[in-house]
Amino acid sequence: MSLSYVMASADSPWSTYLAQIERVLPYLGGLARWADTLRRPKRTLVVDVPIEMDDGSVRHFEGYRVQHSLTRGPGKGGVRYHPDVTLEEVMALAAWMTIKTAAVNLPFGGAKGGVRVDPVRLSIKELEKLTRRYTSEIGIIIGPHQDIPAPDVNTNAQVMAWMMDTYSMNVGATTTGVVTGKPLHLGGSLGRVKATGRGVFITGREAARRLNLDLNGATVAVQGFGNVGSAAAELFHQAGARIVAVQDQDGSIADPRGLDLAALVPHVRAHGSVAGFTHAEPIDAEAFWDVDCDILIPAALEGQLDAQRARRVKARLVLEGANGPTLPGADDILAERGVLVVPDVICNAGGVTVSYFEWVQDFSSFFWNEDEVNLRLDRIMVDALRRIWDTADRHRIALRTATFAVACERILMAREERGLYP
Ligand code: GLU
After folding, report:
1. 58 C-alpha to center of ligand 1: Å?
2. Protein fold of 13-175
């Protein structure tokens, strides 16, 4: 056990985040004196989540909700169900939400939650109980004006409906604004499900333009075929690109002529994985990183692109659909090799941006059509990226450090203006 829980263990997502903060400090001027604000989560809650299983036994799961920053507004960020979730991971994910909401200038801080559980092993009833008990336990710090959860890895609109219902029953009033990513008839927003993938596509489209890379005929490899990877793949496909490889937790497939997405999507829906898809070559998991492609989209979990893989990547453009997929050492290698990386904190910000739209629609009880959602998302992402690119050009720095510079300036300016209490 380290002396303080804010100390990072080697190669953890939290250590990646802290290294990213060190890199931005030279560009923050006098605001850098507030840097410790970014190195410490504001509030961390660890909860025990006991549930009665279908067989009558009682099992305990460990759950977390971390509010990294509430400086610019309520906490915002997803809830993840995964057997490898740790407090340190959730701290990093919460911190990246702080950077992300500031990078697109949404009036939110950053938060994240998680439960260490393998949801595939739970029945629907057990999943509902787990969600309801977890929501009750973190109920003391969430709320539509305090901290607003959303879907993340292995959580979806149904889980959000249970969270909304549990919170509402506990406070005695239907409170749709307490979570985002809800089903449409329960205060959800059109366009939310595909928003993260759409944001990956929008930032990819803008980056490709800079590289003079024509999306029509470009080749794309995607790691992760969940909500983010599949939506992004479909949009690139619609723009004329070929999806030449897809990898998920159970398999990797490739076809240099381009995968048939119209067949792949129902296969994944039916079998839970790209594994076993017969219209493509199965490839070795490690060979995925050697695939010939123009664009690589890591859209799975953290820490996937290490230095060794970064040396092998063939793509000219990496779009981080996942949170924290690239280790700092790999970042340097990609930069040396001239590979452009659009970092997670702007690349996958489409999800939280439409979450913001959903939250606004819930408060005004006035709902937008899908075109309006997509149009506003496009505009916000393009504007945010332009500002980030200006910063990168001005200082001659990587897009990641530039995104952190834009975001940290907003966060620390707010910090300074609010002042220390008491
Ligand atoms: N889980 C998503 C993310 O990592 C969305 C969070 C949200 O909508 O609050 O950005």
Report:
1. 31
2. Rossmann fold (3.40.50)
